[in-house]
Amino acid sequence: MIRVGIINVTGYAGAELARLLYLHPEAEVTSVSGRSAAGKPLAEVFPHLWPLDLKISSELDEVDFVFSALPHGASAEAVVPLVRKGLPVVDISADFRLSDAAEYQRWYGVTHPAPELLPKAVYGLAELNRPAVREARLVANPGCYPTGALLALAPAVKGGIIEPDIVIDAKSGISGAGRSLGLSYHYAEANESVAAYAMEGHRHLPEIAQELGRLWSKAEASLRVTFQPHLVPMTRGILTTCYAPVADGRALTKAGVHALYEDFYKDDPFVRVTAEPPQTKHTWGNNLCLIYPMVDRRADRLVVVSCIDNLVKGAAGQAIQNMNLMLGFPEAAGLDLPAVYP
Amino acid sequence: MIRVGIINVTGYAGAELARLLYLHPEAEVTSVSGRSAAGKPLAEVFPHLWPLDLKISSELDEVDFVFSALPHGASAEAVVPLVRKGLPVVDISADFRLSDAAEYQRWYGVTHPAPELLPKAVYGLAELNRPAVREARLVANPGCYPTGALLALAPAVKGGIIEPDIVIDAKSGISGAGRSLGLSYHYAEANESVAAYAMEGHRHLPEIAQELGRLWSKAEASLRVTFQPHLVPMTRGILTTCYAPVADGRALTKAGVHALYEDFYKDDPFVRVTAEPPQTKHTWGNNLCLIYPMVDRRADRLVVVSCIDNLVKGAAGQAIQNMNLMLGFPEAAGLDLPAVYP
Amino acid sequence: MIRVGIINVTGYAGAELARLLYLHPEAEVTSVSGRSAAGKPLAEVFPHLWPLDLKISSELDEVDFVFSALPHGASAEAVVPLVRKGLPVVDISADFRLSDAAEYQRWYGVTHPAPELLPKAVYGLAELNRPAVREARLVANPGCYPTGALLALAPAVKGGIIEPDIVIDAKSGISGAGRSLGLSYHYAEANESVAAYAMEGHRHLPEIAQELGRLWSKAEASLRVTFQPHLVPMTRGILTTCYAPVADGRALTKAGVHALYEDFYKDDPFVRVTAEPPQTKHTWGNNLCLIYPMVDRRADRLVVVSCIDNLVKGAAGQAIQNMNLMLGFPEAAGLDLPAVYP
Amino acid sequence: MIRVGIINVTGYAGAELARLLYLHPEAEVTSVSGRSAAGKPLAEVFPHLWPLDLKISSELDEVDFVFSALPHGASAEAVVPLVRKGLPVVDISADFRLSDAAEYQRWYGVTHPAPELLPKAVYGLAELNRPAVREARLVANPGCYPTGALLALAPAVKGGIIEPDIVIDAKSGISGAGRSLGLSYHYAEANESVAAYAMEGHRHLPEIAQELGRLWSKAEASLRVTFQPHLVPMTRGILTTCYAPVADGRALTKAGVHALYEDFYKDDPFVRVTAEPPQTKHTWGNNLCLIYPMVDRRADRLVVVSCIDNLVKGAAGQAIQNMNLMLGFPEAAGLDLPAVYP
User: Fold this and answer.
1) Residue B77, H or E segment
2) In angstroms, what separates the C-alpha of B227 from chain A's closest C-alpha?
3) How far apart are CA B230 and CA B174, in angstroms?
């Protein structure tokens, strides 16, 4: 068994890593760290993890593989010495997602702590980047919103079937905001309410734009992307609805688009192109991304809906998928789980 | 006091009419009908209405004003004799919203029961149509989605600040689906889930397109509108996010757009242009529409968010607003209520 | 119009006072205070209160009546000078609910700031104490749990139909915990979960015991009361289920108990004894307490269910009901509202 | 691999069996039946079960083990021929839970279809009945409420530490009502509301009373049990709060009660006596029952809280636990899962 460490296990992504890895046939969590709760048993902080007999420490013990679930900034600092030692690392923070340190500084407001590692980091969306992930020692786990948006749009952008004018409207459950307290996530404020937020620009936009740009082959026009996230009153799940005009002169049909998408994802264990519009509940607790593309013939527009669990395919599950690739395990090892329904 | 009748009080819109009219200073509900529950006291079917000492009958008694909350088709049939008798009527169904009977048949799958009344019916969105509503004897109360979408878009479309290429992404609470049972509205299925639905085309689309078309003055191009509704796990509320490219050559600023919107709605008691992005909870139980327009400068796109309570401004409250105008009462009579928060 | 001041308007009880008083025909909120938000417009902190054009100040202006919605300890300190000036006050905190300062200290962990006022304070449960409330200048507004429990039990305790061995199992929505942040009220933690809490003893127990003791006439046995509160995932509402053995030798029937309860509350505008078991939704946003008593003949036990909105009958609405009595207004002035359903 | 069949896979218990058995190392679902959906692929009816490539048939194919998830009445009829053939069966319905056919008829309103099998059926609460379950060919899976109540009370009743006067107040998520539609489970009706129901007597009461009676050794007094269920707005979970007077002359301490409970359940893989009051979320999706006993010294009363997932330990998970015992597999095979949190 591979010995796995989780840095900052005390957030939702960290706890979800511990939950999912408990089911992994080849890896075992042997060390977890977390500043605020250091010294406490993991099962005291998270009673649902009672079968894991681990104490939260301030530093990881020796392990073979590390997940960092620290906030941005802190994560890069923690990861640098591990990478130098040659440890394979999946970083769940945003620190290694943007390849341009200046862009990072623009959006995150801090100087990148380790720009020298950026060229080595691989963006860990296996469906677009599998070969590079297999070779990587440092993988930047995608953000939850970018995961849902990129998987919904990649076949269309890559396939050149849309104009470069994209609207991404995302609806996220509230665990996406993390375990830190805030008035917007206070039960009585968030329940029975939907809100748009980050209307001046969300930090996941540059990540989405960067990766869509890599897929976009038409040099004559650059992509115009609007990304608008919303909070909806549920714990888990992101539904992303993407809109773009059908490319000039293309006569898309629903069947044709479905065929394109199915072909694009034919080798991906965690993407399903569905026959009916999906709902987030169908991915509750597992690593699937469900995608439903269709064409609004009246307005000549492609509309694509995707569903993920923000804590699994949008965070911990995808991180384990990346680990599996990095270590040569079957890609779905430990992740072959039906969703929890209803 | 005006004597008011409600046809089909047993749905959510009917019950909400009864609740709100209880607070009205000039009107009193004196007769309510409903097929399934005929003969029962209203307060037995709806315990929250216990102060209304009314029995549900199969036919209305004599009244001075009628609201019909019947389903489409049935509503027009019920309304025809009332209109012939000269009674002022607000019809909450879709029957008199579309001015073209063929379009009605296309979307609703039935021949219009009373096409001769269509020219007399006024589309009851007071903010766009106030003078006509004041003169009308038959008002078609707008759908919940069109209310949120039209109020969000009207100043931009009328003002010519956008290209005719509009995406409307709406998120609705589940009471919008009514009181009739259905698996999609079964608690365990709807809770902890977001879903897109009616992806082949929702019946509110032609209504939105018709009214936006009336506001659109540029003959050279027709509007391309995509409308995509979603169900989110809450009881009440619709948040609508609208997207359209800024018109070629316009250099919109956030402040400029806000000024345009504030001017457009300066005389409207139930529309507020907000300084911060709103949430649906801020309209819970009252007749307000909150609107927040902004400009995504990166993509040169107008993004407008609106919030309403689907059962109030999206149904019963707006119907009372229309009654107030038709009968010469103050527009806000009985509707000057803060939202219920949290 | 009476000028009303609200001390600490920035919590849920304070905001709910402002909402409900907006509907009051004889009173107007003219001054509101709050430390953290002093200087801000009320409608900026609470957008649902936008029709109230008030600025939050650090101290109240001159008013005719004061509600204090401060936390315990701070509230008594703020109230003392007002009472000395002769202003009528309803205190929503716990400071004047317990008549015994030592008992207060035992449960709240602080020395009572104004024990000299305790004899003057009246426990403001109008249904049990109406004449005293009418004469009072300082009314202690009951806690939310005691309101639901006392109204459910008073007729039975007073009527001597039960043994002095009472279990009170209460289920509260999460707004009862207030607007201050806490992990237990963080959306993702509280949603999809029910929890028992305060199992070592909740501060509302001595208040319940004190008032039940006043109703209990049998000197030979004192009451044994267990009170266990639970958090359920909803914003508003408390359902309280009370259990007690039928008094020895009594042969209670459901009809007999209903008659006893109906008689007990026959003059109370805000209590209804219902024919069917109620649900909290039937009181959402209004000042009603719905009560359903029944007898478990198998176990010879009285079971009584009550429903209130914790922020209305459990806090702000009851406070206004008390103000109405203190000032000689009709008891239901401003509070005659149907619940908001669904 | 054992071939497993599920009769009536189309309800929530049936679907949950399929989900959990997908994770089982020794058993595989090879045949599923269901009347309404016969002929459809299982994954079309339940998209979360897409990895199971099964078609729903009207009759089971040949299998080695059967779960029946039919409603009561129908289940016994379906089970009889299987038992006669010698197939081991777990029946999730109520048909074989009550050992007295007359009691069954009294509560379920139908004549028992197979009273001759009642003596052979074993009540499948492994924690109380493990040896008998191991030997059984027909196991009656306990109801969801009895599971939570019996596990909370068994050590106290068996240990003789309480008087025979028990109140059981249970709070259930809405999936407990099943997948069949009903107004009480319609989202807009059930959300933001708590309700007591079945106040005249719930069908799970005789089951609870029967099993508690088997544990109760004091011949001089029979048990008086009141069981009151409530619906709370969440999908899964039951929290049960049990109350009983401490037995005369016993001086119980919290530590003493914890020790008694821990000893009672020391060999049970799915019961944990917790150090802090649990919440239902800590069992979301897994087979645990968390129990927290304490003593209210003021009222000399034992108060015990238990939490389960109604669809797992309260239905499908417990059924698999019984299968494991019947077939000689490790008791926790396929069920060793952390809960899904948050």
Assistant:
1) helix B74-84
2) 9
3) 10
Neighbours of B292 (CB within 10 A): 24
Interface of B with C (CB under 8 A): 12, 15, 18-19, 22-23, 46-52, 175, 179, 192, 235-236, 272, 274-276, 278, 281-286, 290, 336-342
Distances (CA, A) of D290 to D237, D268, D286, D335: 12, 12, 11, 15
| Partner chains of B (3+ C-beta pairs under 8 Å) | A, C, D
Residue among C282, C285, C342 minimizing CB distance to B12: C342
ipTM tops the 0.85 cut:
yes
Task: Tell me D55's DSSP state.
Answer: B
Q: What pLDDT, on the 0 to 100 scale, is given for residue B193? A: 98
pLDDT grade for C88, boundaries at 50, 70 and 90: very high
Tell which residue, A222, A224, A221, A220, has the closest CA to residue A205: A224
- Cα D184 to Cα A268, C281, D231, distances in angstroms: 41, 12, 9
- Domain edges within chain D: 2-142+313-327, 145-310
Taking only Cα atoms into account, the Rg of chain D, rounded to an integer number of angstroms, comes to: 20
Span C43-83, pLDDT tens digits: 999 999 999 999 999 999 999 999 999 999 999 999 999 99
Query: Which stretches of A109-183 are assigned E, i.e. beta strand?
Result: 122-123, 138-140, 165-172
CA atoms within a 13 Å half-sphere pointing along the CA-CB vector of C68: 27
Q: Three-state SS for A136?
A: coil
Q: Which residues contact A53 (CB under 8 A, 6 or more apart)?
A: A41, A43
Q: How far is D341 from chain A (nearest CA, A)?
A: 7
| Cα gap A284→B189, rounded to integer Å | 12
- A280 contact residues in B (CB cutoff 8 A): 192-195
3.40.50.150, 3.30.360.10, 3.40.50.970, 3.10.20.30: CATH of D145-310 = 3.30.360.10
Token digits for A34? 């977390």
- Range list of H helices, chain D: 12-21, 42-45, 74-84, 101-108, 126-135, 144-159, 187-190, 204-215, 254-264, 317-327
Render pLDDT for D89-126 as a digit per residue (tens, 0 to 9). 999 999 999 999 999 999 999 999 999 999 999 999 99
Taking only the tens of pLDDT, chain B with its 342 residues reads: 999 999 999 999 999 999 999 999 999 999 999 988 999 999 999 999 999 999 999 999 999 999 999 999 999 999 999 999 999 999 999 999 999 999 999 999 999 999 999 999 999 999 999 999 999 999 999 999 999 999 999 999 999 999 999 999 999 999 999 999 999 999 999 999 999 999 999 999 999 999 999 999 887 788 999 999 999 999 999 999 999 999 998 889 999 999 999 999 999 999 999 999 999 999 999 999 999 999 999 999 999 999 999 999 999 999 999 999 999 999 999 999 999 999
The pTM (predicted TM-score) of the whole model is 0.98
d(CA D289, CA D281): 11
Domain A2-142+313-327 is of which CATH architecture? 3-Layer(aba) Sandwich (3.40)
Distance from C-alpha of A42 to C-alpha of A18, rounded to nearest angstrom:
10
Task: Identify which of A32, A121, A107 has the alpha carbon closest to the alpha carbon of residue A76.
Answer: A121
Q: Could you give the dihedral angle defined by the CA atoms of residues C227, C233, C239 and C242, in that order, rounded to the nearest 10 degrees? A: -30
Peptide bond preceding B41 in cis form (omega within 30 of 0): no
Peptide bond before residue B164 is cis, with ω within 30 degrees of 0: no
Of C263, C315, C253, nearest in space to C291 by CA: C263
Statement: B2-141+313-327 belongs to CATH 3.40.50.150: no
- Structure-token pair, residue A288: 């699937």
Query: Rounded to an integer, what distance in angstroms lies between the CA atom of residue B112 and that of residue B120?
Result: 15
